[in-house]
Structure formats: structure tokens, C-alpha cells
Design goal:
The chain is mainly beta and about 450 residues long. About 10% of the residues lie in helices and about 40% in strands. A hairpin with a 2-residue loop joins strand 30 and strand 31. About 40% of the residues are buried.
């Protein structure tokens, strides 16, 4: 999005509010308004008297000062604003994501009066009152500099290239995801790939790990799995996990592993794009892995992210898009020879993906960018215990149930950077504060309540 487009968006917002207010029969009655991003300066924040868990923000709508200053430096005319008194009243709820820096903040504590902010409204919540007040619920709020780096990188001009990532660490400027923790979290398998840059002609981002290649226009970047172990001096250098005959595959991702590291399930994407799930085994943890044998019981449709149910090596759940959207299917040999979709409380018209199982056969899965938990017949959110939503995904607990490994986005230009974090699993729907996996140590363990 160019800066001129942002200017037009601010002008269009103020103009549409003014026109709608003029046409309203009752100018004091909220009137629906097409949803659009809201830019402006934070005037105040206060607790909602009717909903104690919500916060009401007052935002003076206008072009962010950083862009106004840039226009002045370039000798370009000031942007006229039809209503200098236009104020947005924005409600922030526990379902809102707040971004500071390039990470979810979990609170509004860092949002100061006078700060330039951007609000992405919850669809269908934007209304106007008269010509000077805009109402909306916030799906996301960000300080403008964070939003600019994420969604408006061209407005920054020439940017400083990112420092090369260290392949001895787990996190990088690329994508690290699909954590599979073992032995209380002290052994970790994870998948990684390079991240596409937002600017053409610049290098792909991420650590130069063995097995990783950038995309080439016709094919996506390769993805591989790695193993690392936590010792007294930190995590070991991640080592590539290899299987015979898969050197040319685009994706080789370990999604389930037994505690003895002798049996695993793997997602494979062949060079032609075919996605399937398979199983590999070996005699002992230090031996080479055998060939990945396709799980024929998953059927002929595309499949990925297979996991065995707790205590089983025959019944497994996996993700498939055989009906046009992502759903989670279950192969349970005692109930039939074909895999079946899960309960409608799990599989919906949305996209369900990344099934994982807990120590008591809890089902963890994602719907869009929301982490959910299905236990005792009830689907519920699995949230970090902070005031605002932190969108963790691909949550996978260690088998003792104490620690949860998951993915956390960094709001970077182009494809989002994704890193692995670790949190105590406090109770079925509640997670503790996320810690970057490179910094995590299993000290002061928090038991489930």
C-alpha cells in the first residue's frame, strides 16, 4: 500500500462520515458505516462502565504525524481534513490483539496518550453518530510505526537489511513452527523454512540451515525438520532430520514423535505439490531413520499434520482439504476402515488445522489464527492469561502436561515471521506468559491447577 493510498483512505473516511451524518434522519442515532482502517492520535483510554473487561479509546482521526512530516520534507502540500474534530470511539475487548514493536503486547499498557495508532475494526461494527463521532470495536490495534513496518513498508524508503540469522539458535528471521516437545520439553523437534521478503530482488530471510532452499517462482521454499536438545549451556545446534529418498521433497515435517524417538509421523510435500502423511521408524534413538511409509489409511486426498491419539499407534488425526476447506479427520480402526470428519463442534465451515493431542487425549487444534482445545465434549479457546488476545497457534504440550510449546507471530512485512514460544499450561483453557524458546529453561515449573 503506497502512502498516497493511505492519504486517500483518511480522506474517504472523513468524507463518508460527513456525508452520512448529513443524510441521517436522526444524526444522534448510530448508523452503520463501511469498515475501514482507522488512523489517528490516541486521546484517552478508560474502562468501559458497562463492560469492566473492555477499554474505551478516544482517537482523533487523521493522517499520522510521521507521514505528514514526510510529505512536508518532500515539499508536498498538506492533506486537507474535512472534519478536524472527527473522533473515533473504539472499544477494545479481551478478543482484541494489540501490537507494539512487532509482537502482540497482551495489554494496552504501552499505548500512551498522543501516540499515533491504527485500528482494524471487527467486521460489521463500524458506525457513525452525526458528523464527528465514529464508533467501532477493535479486532487489532497497533502503534503506527509497528503497523507501518508491517503493512506500509514502502513508506519507509530504503530500509536497513536484517542481520543474518544464527543457525545455532532456534528462532530466526525465517519461519519456525510445528514444535514437537519430548522429555518434558528438553528435546524439541521443529520445522523451519526461509521467509519470502516483501521486496523483490532481496534475499530470502532466515537462518541458513542444512536442507533449506528459497522459493523459485514455481515452487515454494523448502521446509525441513530439526532436532535440538537442552543442556546445561542451552540448546544444542539444531540438526537436520533426514529420511531416505526425500531429498527432493519440498516439505519434510515431523508432526508426532514417541518419547523414545524411535517412531514418528511425517508430512511430505513432493516436488509436484502432492501432500501426504507417512510413518518412519528406527531401531534406537541414535540410528538413522528408515523410509517414510505412506499412511494409506488416510485415503488418497491431500493430507498433513498427522498425530497419533494418546496411547495409540494406529488411531490418528490429520488435516485435509478434501472438501475445499481445511478440516480435521480421524482414522479410528475400531470404528471403520475410512477416516471420518470430526464432531461439528470441531469441524466447521472455517479452516481447522494443526491437530495435536494432550496427555489425557485432549485435542488441540487451530481455527484460522485461533488456538482451540476440545476436551470432555466442549470446544473452548486456549488463551494466554493476559487481558488481550495473543494469537498463539500450533500449540503442542509436553507429555507431562506442564509446558505448552506454540508459535507466535511477529508482524513483519510480507509473510509473517513465526517463532516458537513456551508457556506453562495452567489449566485446560489457560496458558502462562510466553517465553521465547531459546530463552526458556524448565525452572520453577508451574503445575496444572
Amino acid at each position: 500500500m503506497k502512502m498516497e493510498r493511505l492519504v486517500l483512505m483518511v480522506l474517504a473516511l472523513t468524507a463518508s462520515v460527513w456525508l452520512a451524518g448529513c443524510d441521517a434522519l436522526n444524526p444522534q442515532r448510530p448508523t452503520p458505516q463501511p469498515d475501514t482502517d482507522i488512523y489517528g492520535s490516541l486521546v484517552s483510554k478508560a474502562q468501559d462502565p458497562e463492560r469492566p473487561e473492555a477499554t474505551v479509546l478516544k482517537i482523533k482521526v487523521g493522517l499520522p504525524r510521521a507521514l505528514s512530516g514526510k510529505r512536508a520534507e518532500e515539499g508536498r502540500p498538506e492533506v486537507p481534513v474535512e472534519s478536524e474534530d472527527l473522533v473515533a470511539t473504539v472499544t477494545v475487548t479481551p478478543d482484541t490483539t494489540a501490537i507494539l514493536g512487532d509482537l502482540p503486547a497482551g495489554t494496552l499498557d504501552g499505548f500512551r496518550t498522543g501516540m499515533d495508532v491504527v485500528v482494524l475494526p471487527v467486521p460489521g461494527t463500524t458506525r457513525i453518530v452525526g458528523t464527528k463521532e465514529l464508533l467501532a470495536d477493535a479486532a487489532l490495534i497497533a502503534d503506527f510505526e509497528s503497523f507501518r513496518s508491517w503493512r506500509l513498508p514502502k513508506s519507509l524508503g530504503e530500509t536497513v537489511p536484517e542481520e543474518p540469522s544464527d543457525p545455532a539458535r532456534i528462532a530466526s528471521a525465517g519461519v519456525e513452527h510445528a514444535p514437537v516437545p519430548l522429555k518434558g520439553g528438553t528435546v524439541l523437534y521443529f520445522a523451519a523454512r526461509l521467509r519470502r521478503p516483501w521486496k523483490d530482488g532481496t534475499p530470502w530471510l532466515g537462518a541458513a540451515r542444512p536442507g533449506l532452499k528459497p522459493g523459485d517462482g514455481e515452487h515454494p521454499a523448502t521446509e525441513r525438520s530439526y532436532r535440538t536438545e537442552l543442556g546445561s549451556d542451552g540448546w544444542s545446534v539444531p540438526e537436520l532430520v533426514t529420511f531416505p529418498g526425500l531429498d527432493d521433497a519440498r516439505t519434510v515435517r515431523v508432526t508426532w514423535m514417541d518419547e523414545e524417538e524411535r517412531l514418528c509421523l511425517v508430512t511430505v510435500q513432493d516436488g509436484d505439490g502432492t501432500r501426504w502423511v507417512g510413518r518412519s521408524s528406527r531401531a534406537k534413538a541414535t540410528a538413522p531413520w528408515g523410509s517414510v511409509e505412506r499412511l494409506e489409511d488416510a485415503g488418497d486426498a491431500p493430507a498433513e499434520d498427522a498425530v497419533y491419539l494418546a496411547g495409540s499407534t494406529t488411531a490418528f488425526a490429520f488435516t485435509t482439504d478434501r472438501h475445499g476447506n481445511l478440516d480435521i479427520y480421524l482414522y479410528y480402526p475400531k470404528q471403520g476402515k475410512d477416516p471420518m470428519p470430526l464432531d461439528p463442534r470441531i469441524d466447521t465451515a472455517g479452516n481447522e488445522w494443526a491437530p495435536r493431542t494432550g496427555p489425557a487425549n485432549e485435542l488441540l487444534f487451530c481455527r484460522g489464527d485461533r488456538q482451540l482445545l476440545y476436551v470432555k465434549g466442549i470446544t473452548q479457546p486456549l488463551r494466554v492469561d493476559v487481558p488481550l488476545r495473543i494469537p498463539v497457534t500450533e500449540a503442542n504440550p509436553a507429555r507431562d502436561g506442564k509446558w505448552m510449546f506454540a508459535c507466535l507471530p511477529r508482524y513483519t512485512a510480507g509473510e509473517l515471521d513465526r517463532d516458537i514460544v513456551v508457556m506453562p499450561w495452567l489449566e485446560p483453557g489457560k496458558l502462562g506468559e510466553p517465553v521465547p524458546v531459546d530463552d526458556w529453561r524448565p525452572v520453577g515449573e508451574t503445575e496444572k491447577e
